[in-house]
């Protein structure tokens, strides 16, 4: 029954002296309170649902973003005595320092406050491209993350000709 019909029925009982004025007032307050609770709640459910959905979409977008740029600065290799292009080198794809750099870049990503990705291990590392003139090396691998396995591509490079540090750029492939 609707609240209006309940109130009309209650008023008819009072007018017929079937209930007292106090009983009428008590029942009327109960009906109005119940009506107010329902009226006050209807908008909260969709708002909570939409808010939760937006949070989920934001988190999924952050986790599965196809082109995440993560960069980590590392020391130049010890065998680079000067800043000339000929003596600078980037590590091999499966090198321990490359693995540490990739793991660190993933852990300290731009979305670290949203998703806490950690690389547990990697496999299937292979070189895709190497340019000794820059020097720059691009590699593919399968990263075993705390959120599951995913193919990645990482690029190790010097940002400019005078740089004594190399950078790593990690991209998650879909």
Overview of the structural elements:
About 40% of the residues lie in helices and about 25% in strands. Helix 1 runs antiparallel to helix 2. It is built from 4 helices and 5 strands. It is α+β, with helices and mostly antiparallel strands and about 170 residues long. The chain has 2 domains: about 5-60, no CATH class; about 70-170, no CATH class. InterPro entries: SHOCT. This is SHOCT domain-containing protein. Keywords: Membrane, Transmembrane, Transmembrane helix.
Note the topology:
Blueprint: H1 3-15, H2 21-41, H3 44-64, E1 70-75, H4 96-107, E2 119-131, E3 136-145, E4 148-157, E5 165-172
Antiparallel strand pairs: 1-5, 2-3, 3-4, 4-5
Helix pairs in contact: 1-2
Protein name: SHOCT domain-containing protein
Keywords: Membrane, Transmembrane, Transmembrane helix
Transmembrane segments: 41-63
List keywords for this structure.
174 residues, alpha+beta, 2 domains, 5-stranded antiparallel beta sheet, 39% helix, 27% strand
Give the uncertain stretches in residue-range form.
65-86
* Count of domains: 2
Shape: rod-shaped
Oligomeric state as shown: single chain
Count of distinct strands:
5
Determine Rg (CA atoms, Å). 32 Å
Work out the helicity level.
25-40%
How far apart lie the N and C ends? 55 Å
Write the H/E string, N to C. Answer: HHHEHEEEE
Which structural class is indicated by helix and strand composition? alpha+beta
Protein name: SHOCT domain-containing protein
Organism: Plastoroseomonas hellenica
InterPro entries: SHOCT
Pfam family, one: SHOCT
């Amino acid at each position: 029954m609707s609240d209006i019909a309940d109130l009309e029925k209650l008023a008819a009982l009072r007018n017929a002296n079937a209930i007292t004025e106090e009983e009428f007032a008590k029942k009327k307050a109960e009906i109005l309170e119940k009506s107010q609770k329902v009226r006050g709640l209807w908008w909260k459910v969709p708002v909570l649902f939409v808010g939760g959905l937006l949070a989920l979409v934001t988190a999924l977008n952050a986790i599965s973003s196809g082109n995440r740029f993560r960069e980590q600065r590392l020391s130049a290799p010890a065998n680079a005595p000067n800043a000339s292009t000929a003596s600078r080198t980037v590590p091999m794809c499966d090198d321990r320092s490359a693995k540490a750099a990739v793991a660190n870049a993933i852990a300290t990503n731009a979305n670290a406050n949203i998703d806490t990705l950690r690389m547990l291990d990697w496999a299937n590392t292979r070189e895709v491209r190497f340019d000794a003139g820059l020097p720059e090396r691009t590699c593919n691998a399968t990263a075993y993350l705390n959120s599951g396995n995913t193919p990645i591509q990482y690029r190790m490079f010097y940002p400019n000709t005078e740089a004594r540090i190399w950078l790593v750029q990690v991209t998650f492939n879909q």
